[in-house]
Design a protein that fits this description.
366 residues; alpha/beta; nine-stranded mixed β-sheet; 15 helices
Amino acid sequence: MTPFRIDIPQADLDDLRERLARTRLPVQIPGAGWERGVPAAYLKELLEHWAGGYDWREHEARLNAHPQFVTEIDGQRIHFLHVRSPEPDATPLLLTHGWPGSVVEFLDVIGPLSDPRAHGGDPADAFHLVIPSLPGFGFSAPLAEGGWNLRRIAKAWAALMAELGYDRYGAQGGDWGSGISVELGRVDAEHVLGVHVNMLLTFPTGAPLDAADQERLKRIEHYEKELSGYMRIQATRPQTLGFGLADSPAGQLAWIAEKFTEWTDQDVDRDRLLTNVSLYWFTNTADSSAQIYWEFARAWSMPEVSPTPLGVAVFPHDIALPIRALAEQTNKVVHWTEFDRGGHFAAMEEPELLVGDIRMFFRSLR
């Protein structure tokens, strides 16, 4: 386990600006909007800010304000933030991001979760935070080999927490981080206090559903029909896609910015978005981060029942809304909150709501 600090070479920053200056935008159908994908006018404005107004060093420094480390688990380099709470009795909590996110997602929740006393909260709700980058994402790259499906990542997270000396801990995540956290509650149940997620996929099993649940199934159908193109490409030919995204920052930006527009109910801070995209760009992980879709498509099966308490925070603009009756068939659901705002990137969109729900869930388990 080695201390780590982000320090992107100036030559890489210069290269990015040169590439952005040479961007060739596509010629689009007049009047075409988001229903066909990212509009050129939208991306042009964002590209200009990335090239001229955005300051990577400022945001690099904010990331470096938190202790970071790299270690090797199961042959794979793993990067993680480790933020110890000033409260000695704090509960260890592992936070896991998804795609197209990164550890950047959690910047606004680190302070309130680790030091609630300094943020107007109860010090009894404090957490020691461990925030890893998924294998193949960010500085947990390059991938040493294939095979990094959700269960293998969960086992690696269990090994990481053991290496850090945390015998009893909680887990939280959204997107892939949700699936990994739930799986962690299965593979390391004797050490996982509870799992909290802000996205949960539930699958029809023939159970009777009321009218509201049927509407949620229609939302899933809409996602599969209109919004899942990225998933099908990354689950089948991630390497082919990787050539374009590794060579074009405009392509990488469009591929990720689309999701931060379609999966949210508000404008995400554009500098935070660009920090997230920059992390993918500077680490050249468009290809390797997409591999998790390929692995999942070949390893998925109907999950076994988890014995670990599960808390679910439902944000209404997420890509798919869970159905509690289905969730309870394979999970020990003890906490369920339905919010009236927020979307897929809850830690960035609604950090106060997410922090409050995490505190409430784990408070009941201590």
